[in-house]
């Protein structure tokens, strides 16, 4: 439990420090286009990695959880239909929950 | 539009407030999804709420919840969550001239530098409207996000097991929704996303939990070297619609 608290506080401190950094550093620091491009692409790489890891792994092993993948598929459909953020989440969780309740997956 | 209103200055300042509050409310309620994901991951209600109050940046918060759910690798989880917050530094860089420059006010304003406030602030026609838009968005989203985090964390624990509620899908679905507009932005973006996912999956069996996700940042490095594109970083979300 204390480890989680430490993780929470470290994450909060790190995130705040980054926000403040942008307001404090001189403008020229990130004028290099490659650096800017890297900062633009980092969230895409990390978030895509998180989607993959949280969808296809359990601990350190690769796994297929049918209900979870169906939920993710439902999220993709909702996104293609331009559903708002919260609708995407509800559709994804609802699909997985429904399949599990029915005992299908 | 009618010509009856002869106070253009006031009208001009009402718009950023309206835009900011609308977007703040719409996005802020997603705190319920984070609260539920955090509770499902094994964080307690207080930890979920403190994270929303003090970190106050969605993707990083979902990432840490995912790391806690993974059980091990909290250090990697923290590093990944902080790395995800690095885009806020770029937003701050672009907004530095528009926000308070020193003292406590700058320290408070810094906390509000996130995707949504940046979108509203940079969409305004002048500095006064930009400041107002920032303030309206920040205040609205901060209140809503924290209240709904509490609701989600509190409610999820009472409704049933996270697995039965499908809460294990909330994280991945939220991340996918967050990068969706960026994946549509171009071929490099899609290639980087795909490479990041493949790198993380391929290294998962061999590396401690959390590390594969950080390693995925090399995909962004490769993307930036292969296809540098001058231009300012854009916020995740579309500009708020103005009728």
Describe the structure.
The complex is a heterodimer of chains A (105) and B (243). Chain A is built from 4 helices and 2 strands. Chain A is mainly α and 105 residues long. Chain A has a two-stranded antiparallel sheet with strand order 1-2. In chain B, helix 3 packs antiparallel against helix 9 (127-159) and helix 4 (58-70) runs antiparallel to helix 11 (170-183).
List keywords for this structure.
heterodimer; A: 105 residues; mainly alpha; two-stranded antiparallel sheet; 76% helix; elongated; B: 243 residues; 72% helix; disordered C terminus
Helix proportion range of chain A: over 70%
- Order of SSEs of chain B, N→C? HHHHHHHHHHHHHH
Radius of gyration of chain B: 19 Å
What would you call the structural class of chain B? mainly alpha
Number of strands of chain A: 2
State the assembly state of the protein chains.
Answer: heterodimer
Poorly predicted runs of chain B are 236-243
Give the gist of this structure:
The complex is a heterodimer of chains A (105) and B (243). Chain A is 76% helix and 4% strand. Chain A contains four helices and two strands.
Q: Any chance you could write out the topology, listing elements then pairs?
A:
The complex is a heterodimer of chains A (105) and B (243).
Chain A: H1 2-24, H2 33-56, E1 57-58, E2 61-62, H3 66-80, H4 85-102
Antiparallel strand pairs in A: 1-2
Helix pairs in contact in A: 3-4
Chain B: H1 8-28, H2 31-41, H3 45-54, H4 58-70, H5 74-84, H6 86-95, H7 103-111, H8 115-122, H9 127-159, H10 162-165, H11 170-183, H12 187-203, H13 211-215, H14 217-226
Helix pairs in contact in B: 1-8, 1-9, 2-3, 2-4, 2-9, 3-9, 4-5, 4-11, 6-8, 8-9, 12-14
């Amino acid at each position: 439990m204390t480890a989680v608290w430490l993780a929470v506080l470290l994450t909060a401190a790190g995130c705040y420090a980054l926000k403040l950094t942008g307001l404090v550093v001189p403008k020229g620091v990130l004028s290099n286009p490659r650096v800017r491009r890297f900062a633009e692409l980092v969230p895409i790489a990390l978030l895509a990695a998180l989607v993959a890891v949280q969808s296809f792994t359990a601990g350190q092993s690769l796994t297929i959880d049918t209900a979870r993948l169906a939920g993710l598929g439902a999220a993709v459909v909702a996104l293609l239909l331009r559903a708002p953020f919260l609708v995407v989440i509800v559709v994804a969780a609802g699909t997985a929950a429904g399949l599990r309740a029915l005992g299908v997956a | 539009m009618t010509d009856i209103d002869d106070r253009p200055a006031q009208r001009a300042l009402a718009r950023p407030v309206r835009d900011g509050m609308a977007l703040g409310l719409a996005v802020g309620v997603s705190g319920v999804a984070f609260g539920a994901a955090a509770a499902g991951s094994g964080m307690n209600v207080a930890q979920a709420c403190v994270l929303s109050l003090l970190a106050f940046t969605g993707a990083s918060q979902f990432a840490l919840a995912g790391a806690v759910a993974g059980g091990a690798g909290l250090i990697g989880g923290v590093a990944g969550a902080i790395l995800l917050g690095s885009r806020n530094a770029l937003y701050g860089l672009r907004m530095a001239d528009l926000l308070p420059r020193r003292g406590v006010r700058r320290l408070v304003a810094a906390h509000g530098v996130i995707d949504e406030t940046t979108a509203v602030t940079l969409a305004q026609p002048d500095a006064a409207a930009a400041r107002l838009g920032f303030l309206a968005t920040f205040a609205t989203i901060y209140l809503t996000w924290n209240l709904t985090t509490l609701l989600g964390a509190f409610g999820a624990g009472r409704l049933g097991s996270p697995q039965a509620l499908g809460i294990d899908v909330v994280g991945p679905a939220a991340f996918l929704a967050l990068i969706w507009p960026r994946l549509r932005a171009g071929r490099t973006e899609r290639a980087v996303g795909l490479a990041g996912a493949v790198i993380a999956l391929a290294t998962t069996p061999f590396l401690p939990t959390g590390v594969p996700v950080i390693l995925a940042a090399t995909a962004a490095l490769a993307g930036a070297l292969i296809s540098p594109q001058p231009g300012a970083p854009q916020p995740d979300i579309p500009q708020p619609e103005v009728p």
